[in-house]
Amino acid sequence: MINVDIKLAMNDNEGKYNITISSRIIYSVEQSEGIDGINQVFDAIQEAMSITLKTVSNNGANISMP
Fold first, then answer.
1. CA 3 to mean position of chain CA atoms
2. pLDDT (tens digit, 0 to 9) for every residue of the chain, 66 residues total?
3. Using CA atoms, how far apart are residues 37 and 33, in angstroms rounded to an integer?
4. Domain map of the chain by residue range?
5. DSSP characters for 6-41?
6. How many Å apart are CA 2 and CA 26, to the nearest integer?
7. Can you tell me the distance from the alpha carbon of 9 to that of 46, in angstroms, rounded to the nearest whole number?
8. Contacts of 28 (CB under 8 A, 6+ apart)
9. Which helix (H) or strand (E) holds 26?
10. In what order do the strands lie in the sheet with 24-30?
11. Hey, which residues does 24 pair with through a beta bridge?
């Protein structure tokens, strides 16, 4: 079994909302733009990661996320 430890997170820092994967910022917007848009992006990334890992697992790899 392969354990995948990919940490997806969202935080606010210095007037920006940031989405990070394993502590690296992959998307950032100004807080003045509001949180709704970045919440939608976060949800989409989370769903894409889930679908990808399920697909890989269903195709023979034994992968799990904590």
1. 17
2. 566 678 999 999 999 999 999 999 999 999 999 999 999 999 999 999 888 878 877 776 666 655
3. 8
4. 2-60
5. --EEEEEETTEEEEEETTEEEEEEEGGG-HHHHHHH
6. 24
7. 9
8. 16, 17, 18, 19
9. strand 24-30
10. 8-13, 16-21, 24-30
11. 21
